[in-house]
Design brief:
The complex is a heterodimer of chains A (229) and B (388). Chain A is an alpha/beta fold and 229 residues long. Chain A has a single domain, classed as Rossmann fold, CATH 3.40.50. Helix content of chain A is 31%, strand content 28%. Chain A contains seven helices and ten strands. In chain A, strand 7, helix 6 and strand 8 form a beta-alpha-beta unit. In chain A, helix 4 packs across helix 5 and helix 5 packs parallel to helix 6. Chain A is globular and about 50 Å long. With 388 residues, chain B is of the alpha+beta class. Helix content of chain B is 52%, strand content 20%. In chain B, strands 1, 2, 3, 4, 5, 6, 7, 8, 9 and 10 form a ten-stranded mixed sheet that branches. A two-stranded antiparallel sheet of chain B has the order 11-12. The complex binds adenosine-5'-diphosphate. Adenosine-5'-diphosphate binds next to strand 1, strand 2 and helix 1 of chain A. Chain A: This is ABC transporter ATP-binding protein. Chain A: GO terms for molecular function: ATP binding; ATP hydrolysis activity; transmembrane transporter activity. Chain A: Belongs to the ABC transporter superfamily. Macrolide exporter (TC 3.A.1.122) family. Chain A: Keywords: ATP-binding, Nucleotide-binding, Transport.
Chain lengths: 229, 388
């Protein structure tokens, strides 16, 4: 039953980790559907498995059981190499600690994912400039990450996430390391990406005020999705 | 990919101190490696330039060097009649019957002593070696106890200046001139009248006979004539080959010494590079996770860290060669193990040495970087992203 508007379809996903001889069951029979252009907040107490679910959606890890279909591709069947290639085309990452490469300038950080495409240098430069202007950082192209504030770094990181025009944006506590004003700016920016540019966004957060900025919410508790909250 | 190269390069430049220390470790090894090969090369060059291609050295058949060789007067006289010999400006045959003996002399600036070659020369010895030029004083007169000394001897040994007197073989010898023979072995010799020297050393035989061919192509003919003639018990060699052969034992010895020394040192340098690179990988775990998340494959990570280590090796190689190249301005002396006399020469750097040293250094980078790069590429993405 494929719906043209459905961009994400998670079916009966299980995931556990081994810690020593112990098995930690993190996700229990998760199913979830999301439409193109959605802005979803994954909420829940810490340790409930939010990041784990997000990593599975982003193709960073493999499920134990179940399927994850994104834009018609079941990513649980992809080989490691194919999955990496798939990520480079389809996923834009926004991390809590920005994860910019310290030795590269803002411009080069944004250019990085484009190195995995077949774009020419000139085309890459065009894309990078466009992405940096979306996040309002075009005047800081030559700055290194340590010359930027946290909020500025996160904006550069967002430019890096959108520069390849991915299918989905995944954000893991994007405001977790920011002061309130910077956090608001980043959330405004994500809102704009969603509304104006139609980006599908999945954001993990335990901060209710950040969660409210999303257009839908899912609550995870001890590895189970709780739709009623 | 330009950006990937800058990524590796800048990571090295960012942790400047560790990079410098690690590269210096490698530089030291490259320095030892390059300098010993330069030594071998310089020695070879000196000895090879000592010979000239038109000249022929004749020794007793079983002798490898002039010091071991004896040629009696009869055989030497017959040699003078050979038709292959070129004529000099004076219309006489260019041939010299020479004597070679070793004496010990006191070095300047130290209590050490060393062997020095005394060469008894004939009238044509100078014209047979156009590279030997008198720089001060005059030629020794025939039939007297006058000698001339090579420039390296004058520099390195006591009492060897112009007008000085040396005592050996029961006589006093007056130094009437100093000659320069460029970077050849002759610079480390003392020359005097062969007949006078034979008398005072009580020698009945010459050591060698040197002659110039009318035409270098006549060599094979001359060789055949001498080995077929039952009156001779002599071996014939081109002068160039003679000195090349002398250099080979020494050069091989130095090369083996150099390679074994550097192999031992290089273990240290490789371990140093490995520690540095393991630390780099550990410090950049989250960064590696990020790159992988963005879609970079394991092999790109492997390549980036390996490249970093190769660049480190390149830096080390450049620094080591820079230090080693300064040695060119140094003149050193060593025992010539063939004659056990002192021989002065220079370190000589060649394109081959540069290429070998750089390859060696980059290989050290490779060896040191391989395991850390491999570990970086094997990391689990999710685990490394948790590392902040
Ligand atoms: N790689 C891992 N190895 C072992 N345990 C893990 C791993 N990743 C997550 N976990 C465990 O899974 C549970 C959920 O973690 P996580 O998804 O990070 O939760 P959240 O993001 O909601 O805080 C936690 O108990 C955590 O310790």
């Amino acid at each position: 039953m494929r719906n043209e508007e459905l961009i994400l379809s998670i079916n009966n996903v299980f995931k556990s980790y081994h810690r020593g001889s112990q098995i930690v069951r993190v996700l229990e029979n998760i199913s979830l559907e999301l439409e193109r252009g959605a802005f979803l907040a994954l909420m829940g107490p810490s340790g409930s498995g939010k990041s784990t679910l997000l990593n599975l959606i982003a193709g960073l890890d493999y499920v134990d059981q179940g399927t994850i279909e994104i834009d018609g591709v079941d990513i649980t069947t992809l080989s490691e190499t194919d999955l990496a290639r798939w990520r480079s085309v389809n996923v834009g990452f926004i991390f809590q600690f920005y994860n910019l490469i310290p030795v590269l300038t803002a411009f080069e950080n944004v250019e990085l994912p484009l190195l995995l495409t077949s774009l020419s240098k000139r085309e890459r430069q065009k894309h990078v400039s466009a992405a940096l202007s979306v996040v309002n950082m075009e005047d800081r192209v030559d700055h290194y990450p340590n010359q930027l504030s946290g909020g500025q770094q996160q904006r550069v990181a967002i430019a890096r996430a959108i520069v390849t025009d991915p299918t989905i944006l995944v954000a893991d506590e994007p405001t977790g390391d920011l002061d309130r004003i910077s956090a608001e700016n980043v959330l405004d920016l994500m809102d704009r990406l969603n509304r104006d540019l139609g980006k599908t966004i999945i954001m993990v957060t335990h901060d209710p005020s950040a969660g409210k900025r999303a257009h839908s919410m899912e609550h995870l508790d001890k590895g189970v999705l709780n739709h009623d909250l | 990919m330009g950006l990937l190269f800058f990524y590796s390069l800048r990571n090295l430049l960012t942790r400047r101190l560790t990079t410098i220390l690690t590269a210096l470790g490698m530089a030291l090894v490259v320095f030892v490696f390059a300098s010993i090969i330069m030594l071998a090369e310089g020695l070879k060059k000196t000895l090879v330039e000592t010979g000239s291609s038109g000249n022929v050295v004749i020794l007793r058949k079983s002798a490898e060097t002039e010091v071991q060789s004896r040629i009696d007067r009869d055989q030497a006289s017959i040699l003078e009649t050979l038709p292959e010999i070129a004529l000099g400006e004076d219309g006489q045959r260019l041939i010299a019957k020479e004597l070679l003996v070793l004496i010990t002399m006191q070095k300047k600036n130290s209590d050490g002593i060393a062997n020095v070659i005394i060469r008894g020369i004939g009238k044509h010895s100078f014209s047979l070696r156009p590279q030997v030029k008198l720089i001060t004083g005059r030629m020794p007169r025939w039939g007297t106890s006058e000698i001339v000394v090579g420039q390296s001897v004058a520099k390195r040994f006591k009492n060897t200046g112009l007008q000085r007197t040396l005592s050996f073989a029961t006589r006093s010898w007056n130094i009437v001139g100093v000659f320069d023979a460029g970077d050849t072995g002759f610079s480390s010799e003392i020359w005097g009248d062969a007949d006078q020297l034979m008398q005072s050393f009580r020698r009945q035989t010459y050591s060698s006979v040197i002659l110039r061919l009318r035409n270098p192509n006549l060599f094979q003919g001359l060789k055949k004539r001498i080995s077929n003639d039952p009156r001779f018990t002599l071996g014939v060699m081109r002068e160039k080959d003679y000195y090349l052969k002398q250099s080979e034992t020494m050069a091989t010895f130095l090369r083996i010494l150099g390679i074994s020394l550097t192999l031992i040192f290089s273990i240290g340098a490789v371990v140093g590079a490995m520690i540095t690179m393991f630390a780099a990988v550990a410090n950049r775990t989250a960064e590696i996770g990020t790159l992988r998340a963005l879609g970079f494959q394991r092999k790109s990570i492997l390549f980036a860290f390996l490249l970093e280590s190769l660049i480190l090796g390149f830096f080390g190689g450049c620094a080591g060669l820079l230090f080693a190249s300064l040695l060119q301005f140094l003149t050193v002396s060593t025992m010539n193990f063939q004659t056990f006399s002192e021989l002065a020469f220079r370190f000589s750097i060649t394109p081959g040495i540069i290429i070998k040293s750089m390859a060696f250094s980059i290989f050290m980078g490779f060896a040191g970087g391989l395991l850390p790069a491999f570990r970086a590429s094997r990391m689990n993405i999710v685990d490394s992203l948790r590392e902040v």
